Recover the amino acids of this structure.
């Protein structure tokens, strides 16, 4: 089975801090994704990557950056955390074509 | 960008009964893939079922089946013999064959199963 591991289930940070969310997958997937999930808004794509060192902006990239130095690892960075970034963050990975995305458990991030 | 619409924020079903969750999408592509995901409370999102647009036959996975109407751009999920463990948030998702690797998700339907 595909395993997508997010480094933390719960995280509390302060406004202005630089925050790192880590995601690792073990199935050699080319594609990796970061979403935020908010009630009533579903999943909104922040960034995705289709190869090492490659990244594409999603629908809501403002205030975020990403890093993919190795194929199995995709990091989401909040450059200067703000309270409106309090949310559930989901990482996913996939192959191409008809293959589905596989999700991690999610990180519930609170910015105080 | 493609849009995926789930018009039912909440649904409920009696245990052992059947429920249908609706999903519509907007696309100009002829080839694409559709998915239903399930997210139980505080648990991981998992794939329930998928459908390729070029296949006319509706996908089925045990108690889960879809009604795929390509012309109407509709992709509903039917859950038969509902069980307590089916209670979850359900998301419909679209992936185009020509729109790169991006998935588009609906806003979700929260399903409650009544004992």
């Amino acid at each position: 089975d595909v395993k997508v591991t997010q480094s933390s289930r719960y995280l509390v940070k302060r406004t202005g801090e630089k925050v790192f969310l880590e995601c690792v997958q073990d199935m050699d997937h080319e594609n990796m994704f970061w979403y935020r999930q908010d009630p009533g808004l579903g999943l909104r794509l922040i960034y995705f990557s289709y190869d090492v060192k490659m990244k594409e902006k999603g629908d809501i990239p403002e205030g975020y950056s990403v890093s993919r130095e190795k194929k199995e690892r995709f990091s989401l960075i909040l450059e200067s955390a703000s309270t409106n970034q309090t949310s559930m963050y989901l990482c996913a990975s996939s192959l191409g074509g008809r293959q589905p995305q596989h999700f991690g458990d999610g990180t519930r991030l609170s910015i105080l | 960008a493609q849009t995926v619409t789930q018009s039912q924020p909440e649904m409920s079903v009696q245990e052992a009964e059947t429920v249908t969750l609706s999903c519509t999408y907007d696309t100009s592509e002829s080839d694409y893939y559709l998915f239903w995901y399930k997210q139980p409370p505080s648990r991981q999102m998992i794939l329930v079922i998928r459908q390729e647009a070029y296949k006319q036959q509706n996908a089925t996975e045990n108690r889960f089946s879809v009604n795929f109407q390509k012309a109407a751009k509709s992709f509903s999920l039917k859950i038969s013999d509902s069980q307590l463990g089916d209670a979850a948030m359900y998301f419909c998702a679209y992936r185009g064959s020509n729109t790169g690797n991006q998935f588009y998700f609906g806003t979700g339907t929260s399903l409650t199963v009544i004992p």
DSSP finds no helices and twelve strands in chain B. Chain B has a mean pLDDT of 93. The two ends of chain B are 40 Å apart (CA to CA). Chain B touches chain A through 24 residues (CB under 8 Å).
